[in-house]
Amino acid sequence: MSYADAAAKGPKQTPEEFHSRAPAPPSVENTESSASSLVDVDSPHVSSVPSDFESQATQTQTQAERMAHEAEDQAREASAKASQKTKETSAEADNKASEASSKASAKAKEFGQYASEKGDELSKEAGDKYEKAKKSTARNYREGKEEAREKGNELSRNRDNPVVVGNAVIIGLGSVALGFSAYQKYAQGELSWKLAGITAAAVGAFAVGDYYVSQYLFQNKYPKK
User: Fold this and answer.
1) Which of 111, 182, 196, 200 is 20 to 30 A from 94, alpha carbon to alpha carbon?
2) Greatest C-alpha distance within the chain
3) How far is CA 28 from CA 31, 34, 35, in A?
4) Residue 164 CB neighbour total at 10 angstroms
């Protein structure tokens, strides 16, 4: 049995109950102004939310996370490359420093060896010059000694030669006279460099003349023994 049949079989409503029922709901007046205020869903100015809006938000968040991970990976890679570059640069600097140190050490060793060889060479050269000078001095000493001995022997052999005797007398007397005259001039305050120069020139001229006269006498009248 339907609801309508059940209601029909029930007790009838009295006029009071019929009038006391709930009022009818208000109705909207259909006017042109109210109709125009309604939204036209077909209008191009109305934007609708797509059906995959939530999936798009999820995809956007996933992309952001992926980009953040990629940025972290790139940062780690850049840091690793920078660290590797720093190590390579440090190793290269160490190699260059070691190479420079080796070159400097080799150069110092080479210079030290050169200085040692040069020092030995100079020392040997100085020793050779010293030996030559020593030998030359000894030779000159021997030659001078031999010459003095020969002169002494010659003088001894010709001590009775009139030329030698005359020269000895002249030298002795001249020395005494020159010394006495110089003393007198000194005592009188008349001794000067000018007088000494004149006297020295006179003595030199007399010695030259005496030499040539003696050589003439030795060769022509009183030869040496």
Assistant:
1) 111
2) 214
3) 9, 9, 11
4) 19
Least-confidence region, from 1-15, 35-49, 93-107, 201-215: 35-49
Task: Give the contacts of 159 (CB within 8 A, at least 6 positions apart).
Answer: 165
Instruction: Please write the tens of the pLDDT for every residue from 165-181.
Output: 888 888 889 889 889 98
CB count within 10 Å of CB 171 equals: 12
**Alpha-carbon separation of residue 146 from 48, 136, 142, 152, 155 (angstroms):** 143, 15, 6, 10, 14
Token pair for residue 199?
């006297």
Q: Which residues have CB under 8 Å from 185's CB, separation 6+?
A: 191, 195
- pTM (two decimals): 0.34
Residues 142, 1: Cα–Cα separation, whole Å: 177
Q: How big is the chain, counted in residues? A: 225
